[in-house]
Give the backbone structure.
Amino acid sequence: MPARPALAAALGAAALLCAAVAPAAAGASETVTVDKTGHITEDGTVTLSGTYRCTGATGAAFVSSAVSQGDKDSKTVYGIGGSVARCDGAEHRWENTGKVSPDSLKAGKAHVQATVTELRSSGLLLLPSFHAVQAKDITLTRK
């Protein structure tokens, strides 16, 4: 697996596992938003977007996103790409694209979680530090 998709998948998994602690760790001036519409193509390529603002990152920072459909008891969450974040206090746009099996997701209602995560050095390890997280119901449209 190429490095960028593997990193995006790892960040997405970390974000989903640690979402409960993210709001406590995020500063009030740090935000991430999700646009109300995402796009899906016939081959399963999903594009999600929004904005983010973060400050004070000392390590590499990323905006990761994940999408799911269906009821909460049987849904599968799919990591959709990751993009580099600039934590300079300004608002920036993000857009992540990823491909899932063509039958996994369809046009219609979906749930997205976006997270701004920094990888901070802690001795020999890089540990995630969450700057902002948002979960939002959106509509996937056929593109």
User: Anything to note?
Assistant: Helices lie at 3-17, 22-25. The chain is about 15% helix and 50% strand.
